[in-house]
Design brief:
The protein contains 18 helices and 36 strands. By secondary structure, the protein is an alpha+beta fold. It starts with a strand and ends with a helix. Pathway: Steroid metabolism; cholesterol degradation.
Length: 786
């Protein structure tokens, strides 16, 4: 056994790893983060040519910088290495994945389907949590100090073309504290958890340097937020530690072999009960491919569903605003301030094609000199004029060179009017990551996604036309290669091992305690900038991990273990839920889950669901819920008389303001119904309406003795009440009822439910059979002769 052992090891410190480290450490677990790169405090990011030459990642060549550049057969990629991962060099945009872009069973040209086992409703509460932690806010365009030309130009172009334009949320501090007035270069108030760098941060000064590291600390990058908070709660952040191999540990848990890049080098092994892989799409997939021999049973989908999130870069040259009088000046402002959205077929609008975003780009002011150098034709002309003027001055003995030098410099028209455009969207995830000679390789090209890329190019050309600009793409010597900063896939999530490497919570099938928390787990493109979605999935993963753990506080230095009853993660609720969610050794128990969807009508103002049937269609509205029922320990579930499980998902009704995520939910299967031949299937869902007010959906299926012909009706009809407030079980009589009615499961939905059954843990097939015998036995007890 390794000398070091932790409750959790997190490999990587990007949007997945940082979120997981904070959530697990704040819940009391001993956590260590292994980050291959080094820490970059504000003021330490490279700027000079000498510094930039060392800013790349290649330890074999003695380079430990933050840019890691990959070149494959069909694409090139730039990813990050450093404490904070991709947040060090991304452009701060925190857009949610569009609701209808969580596609299901969408065919892929190369075979198979893009299918997301999570929904927008599943992620919305986790999106909320990440946005709060990163303090996201739209660009303050209406503040005079932040009114920049490139943002107005994009707004005007979108209006002219009838396109949807928005100011997306940015993880940037424009004000010194939340709620304060924005200002440039102001000291930022320190968070309660402090900062790992110990350096004062300042608000954005519009320098366009987001993508090369923010030397002011204006970006709310992960080192300033989640990782600082994780360290505050006891997590160890080990930089220049690169994971090289992983394997199961005898008796449960995992071991990680790592390499130290500190002077003197060296290697080591660390043990853990739970292992979270968050080394990025390339790093995580590479680790799994290398360790495949030690992880028997890994899904055959490992390496698949790779995509570049539809990334496409173009340049508008000599662009001005709609009046054609004001230069763009793209070097002023954050890298991205605004976005134009192209609708998707799935949005059910008049648009056709795969959804996409086009965003204004920016670059540091010192790049203006390089941009001017690109204008070779004009530069030669200016030089020729300068020589001619010098000959004239020699003859006329004119000693003043000011005008001539000014002419040689030019009017800087190109740099003042160049605007990068950044496109991304729902390309086709048909690429594959594999090992060749022990090295990672990608087989992927843009052929299946050509329609997407051409749609984005065409829209960029239309924007160029409105702004009177020349539209240019990457240099011709790059051919049709794609450059992506958003590689995704490789270890995709799915509903079962035939569809993905991990489940919808990131846990690897048949390897309990091994989680994937980064872009590798995505089964397809996000369409929007993926950082927020990756972080939200990691937050959701952490919630599941904590809810399913026993309370175990392990002293990593002394090896002592203290245990208490309960999960320590789920607050007291309407049931004694903690007991049924935790039982014994995690490695010895089998979990089971399935999905269920029911639809019907709720009559507002009706308290009794049995009397609401006549009035509901005229006074109420359609109501639907979709739930995933999760049983953490099947043996304990079957033994307990209440047969309690967790319910997660969403409730959708117009009178609630649309689809609302279930914040907490409980399900009882065949609980005692007050008589030997009576059972109830109970549902209790807590959620919040669009008006911000809490509500409870409580329902029951009344399974009682009668003719066998009633079996389908009884088990498919849910008598339902919607009540004000989050109402615990046993307090329904005191609660105010908003409405009542009945929901039903349709035969096609039942078929989908049966297909969704999944077990994890030892003896899964036998566990599923035990569950089936229990279910049928309960029905026989109720409806059988006697």
């Amino acid at each position: 056994m390794p000398a070091e052992h932790y409750d959790a090891v997190v490999v990587g410190s990007g949007f997945g790893g940082a979120v997981a480290a904070y959530r697990l450490a704040s819940a009391g677990l001993s956590v260590v983060v292994l980050e291959r790169g080094r820490a970059f405090a504000p003021g330490s990011f490279p700027r000079s040519p000498a510094e930039m030459g060392k800013a790349f990642w290649d330890p074999a060549e003695g380079l430990y910088g933050m840019y890691d550049v990959w070149s494959f057969g069909g694409c090139d990629s730039v990813v990050a290495s450093g404490l904070g991962g991709g947040s060090l060099i991304y452009a701060n945009v925190m857009l949610r994945k569009d609701e209808h872009w969580f596609v299901h069973e969408e065919p892929i040209t190369a075979g198979g389907y893009e299918s997301w086992p999570v929904t927008r409703a599943d992620l919305d509460p986790h999106y909320d949590a990440v946005e709060r932690m990163l303090d996201v806010t739209p660009y303050p365009l209406e503040n005079p100090a932040f009114d920049v030309p490139k943002t107005r130009a994009m707004q005007d172009a979108a209006a002219e073309l009838g396109l949807e334009w928005r100011l997306p949320p940015l993880a940037v501090s424009f004000a010194p504290r939340r709620g304060a007035e924005p200002g440039i270069g102001l000291p930022i108030a320190e968070a309660p958890y402090g900062n790992v760098h110990g350096v004062t941060r300042k608000t954005c000064r519009l320098c366009g340097e987001c993508d090369i590291g923010c030397n002011d600390g204006s970006k709310n990058s992960l080192d300033h937020t989640y990782l600082s908070a994780a360290r505050h709660h006891g997590a160890e952040l080990r930089t220049l530690h690169q994971a090289r191999a992983i394997r199961p540990r005898a008796g449960g848990g995992y071991e990680v072999d790592y390499l130290r890049h500190h002077p003197g080098g060296g290697a080591g092994t660390i043990g853990c009960d739970r292992l979270v892989l968050a080394a990025g799409t390339y790093g995580t997939t590479f680790l799994l491919l290398k360790s495949r021999g030690d992880l028997p049973g890994l899904s055959d989908t490992l390496g698949t569903r790779f995509s570049g999130n539809g990334d496409l870069l173009a340049f508008l040259l000599r662009a001005k605003d709609r009046s054609r009088t004001r230069p763009i000046n793209a070097s002023r402002g954050p890298v991205i301030t605004s976005a134009i959205r192209l609708a998707d077929d799935a949005d059910a609008t008049r648009e056709s094609g795969r959804g996409a975003y086009i965003q204004d780009g920016g670059y540091p002011a010192f790049i203006d000199w390089l941009v001017e150098g690109v204008d070779a034709g004009n530069e030669i002309g200016r030089a020729a004029r300068f020589i001619a003027e010098r000959l004239r001055a020699f003859v006329t003995r004119d000693a003043n060179l000011s005008a001539e030098v000014a002419g040689l410099m030019g009017d800087a028209d190109l740099s003042a009017s160049s605007l990068p455009l950044l496109g991304m969207g729902r390309d086709v995830p048909d690429g594959e990551l594999r090992l060749r000679g022990g090295r990672l390789d990608v087989e992927w090209n843009q052929e299946a996604s050509e329609e997407h890329f051409e749609r984005v190019r065409a829209t960029m050309r239309r924007i160029a036309h409105v702004l009177g600009a020349e539209h240019g793409e990457m240099p011709s010597w790059l051919g049709k290669r794609i450059i992506t900063v958003h590689p995704l896939g490789g270890a995709p999530m799915g509903r079962h091992p035939g569809e993905g490497v991990c489940d919808a919570f990131g846990e690897v099938f048949d390897h309990p305690g091994l989680f994937i928390a980064d872009g590798a787990a995505l089964p397809g493109p996000v369409g929007a900038n993926p950082s927020l979605t990756i972080a939200a999935l990691a937050d959701r993963m952490s919630t599941r991990l904590l809810e399913r753990r026993p309370v175990t506080t392990r002293s990593k230095r002394e090896g002592q273990v203290e245990m208490s009853v309960g999960t320590g993660a789920v607050p007291a609720g309407p049931h004694a839920v903690t007991g049924s969610l935790v039982a014994g050794d995690r490695a010895e128990r089998t979990s089971l889950s399935f999905s269920e969807e029911m639809t019907g009508h709720i009559a507002l103002g009706v308290a009794d669901p049995r009397s609401g049937d006549l009035a509901e269609r005229s006074h109420g509205g359609r109501c639907t819920f979709r739930l995933t029922i999760s049983i953490a320990d099947l043996d304990r579930f079957l033994a307990e008389p209440e047969h309690l499980a967790r319910a997660e998902g969403w409730v959708d009704a117009d009178f609630l303001g649309g689809r609302r995520p279930v914040e907490r939910g409980w399900f009882n299967l065949f609980a005692a119904g007050g008589a030997p031949d009576r059972r109830e299937m109970r549902y209790r869902l807590w959620f919040t309406g669009a008006d911000g007010l809490p509500r409870t959906l409580a329902g029951w299926k009344d399974v009682h003795h009668g003719p066998a012909t009633r079996l389908w009706l009884d088990t498919s009809t849910l008598f339902t009440r919607v009540m004000w407030g989050h109402v615990p079980e046993g307090e329904d009589r005191q609660a105010e009822v908003a409405g009542a009615g009945t929901l039903h499961i349709q035969p096609m939905d039942l078929a989908a439910t049966l297909k969704s059954f999944h077990t994890q843990g030892p003896h899964g097939i036998a566990a599923l059979a035990r569950f089936g015998r229990f279910f049928v036995g309960q029905l026989w007890d109720v409806y059988g002769p006697g």
